[in-house]
Amino acid sequence: MANLTIRNLSKSYGAVRALDNVSLTVKEGKLAAVLGPSGSGKSTLVRAIAGFVRCDSGEILLDNRNITHEKPELRNTAMVFQNYALWPHMTIYQNIAYGLKLRKKSPEEIREKVQWALELVDLQGLEDRYPKQTSGGQQQRVALARALVVDPEILLLDEPLSNLDAKIRYRLRFEIKKLQKRLNITTIYITHDQEEALSIADQVILLNNGQIQQEDDPESIYSSPNNPFVAEFLGASNVITADILEDDQGLYVLLGGARLPVPRGKKPHDKVSIIMRADEVSQDREALGDSSFYTLKGRISEQMYLGAKRRYEVATGEGHTLLVDLEKRLPTDADIELYIHRDKLYIY
Ligand code: ADP
């Protein structure tokens, strides 16, 4: 168990900056989800920690130990790959025992440790089967057991659930989280699924083009995105580009007739991005209490039934379309007045 510190890590492949000056800390026993679109540098980051990728510059530390140039097998990290990478010619038992054999543990210790790992992931009784005689979910558990059996200081999981169907994925997500907490093991968990990241992580690291866009706890990164990329990636449904206007009171933008402030440094005729979630908007002004809010006006142009709620498209006088989720059933073409807390509408 260790604190992981990464300082100014960079790695290029030709002209591609796979990692661009990445710095972060993951505290002992915490689970950090590394989130980002395909090609954002997630795998490169985790492979660099494991020692499979040699970086151009920067440092990787486990507590105070600088492992930047250490061989992979000396780092005491363990990795679970997306495709599990189990050895097909070895039984489940042999797969799990392999790392211990490499470390020259005694037969007795190997037997004890493998038994411990099998119990940990609930696979007792399957030790004599070969990987192809087990389900995808079971193979995933074998991969996890094989990683944990060597008592790594850092557990690295590269999209560990992406090959499983939705139901098993959902269940295993919570099992991994429980196991990780029980063993108090510092963990890096790569995913491109924002819901998975938010539900499992103590800390979310969002990458794009090899750079960290935001690093925060799940609630903060979801509710206070640093920039439009973060907001959009974490599921904000409205990203509206609007022109900056000017009158004798200064600069402003208009949305649904509401006068919105303009971020510092902007000039007339510049554009701004206005970001809000479909479910942060309400028709119920009372519910917002004394807090300050914007009133947005428009007309319902389309609607879609989503079960517990409906999603409405609302056309504003300025020619924008807002997506709004409401429980109430309303007719298309109705005029509508909506309220949103000022802190829930981001302007960049
Ligand atoms: P992610 O895991 O987020 O999909 P990667 O870390 O795999 O992203 O890749 C980051 C960038 O580096 C991508 O543009 C990818 O094409 C490039 N890249 C990764 N590995 C290599 C490699 N071995 N050779 C050349 N380019 C690579």
What tags apply to this protein structure?
348 residues, alpha+beta, Rossmann fold, OB fold (Dihydrolipoamide Acetyltransferase, E2P), 2 domains, 6-stranded mixed β-sheet, binds adenosine-5'-diphosphate
Tell me the overall shape.
elongated
Q: How big a fraction of the residues is strand? A: 25-35%
Count of discrete alpha- or pi-helical segments spanning 4 or more residues: 8
End-to-end Cα distance, whole Å, is: 40 Å
Structural class: alpha+beta
CATH class of the largest domain: Alpha Beta
- Average residue pLDDT: 93
**CATH superfamily heading of the largest domain:** P-loop containing nucleotide triphosphate hydrolases
Which sequence of strands runs across the widest sheet?
6-7-8-3-9-10
Tell me the number of structural domains: 2
Residue share in helices?
Answer: 10-25%
CATH topology of the largest domain: Rossmann fold
Concise synopsis of the structure shown:
The chain is an alpha+beta fold and 348 residues long. It contains eight helices and 20 strands.
How would you describe this protein?
With 348 residues, the chain is an alpha+beta fold. The chain folds into two domains: 228 residues, 3-Layer(aba) Sandwich (Rossmann fold); 109 residues, OB fold (Dihydrolipoamide Acetyltransferase, E2P) (Beta Barrel), CATH 2.40.50.100. Helices cover 24% and strands 34% of the residues. The protein is built from eight helices and 20 strands. The strands form five sheets. It has a six-stranded mixed sheet, with helices on both faces. Strand 13 and strand 14 form a beta hairpin. The longest helix has 18 residues. It is elongated, with a radius of gyration of 25 Å. The structure holds adenosine-5'-diphosphate (ADP). Adenosine-5'-diphosphate binds next to strand 2 and helix 1.
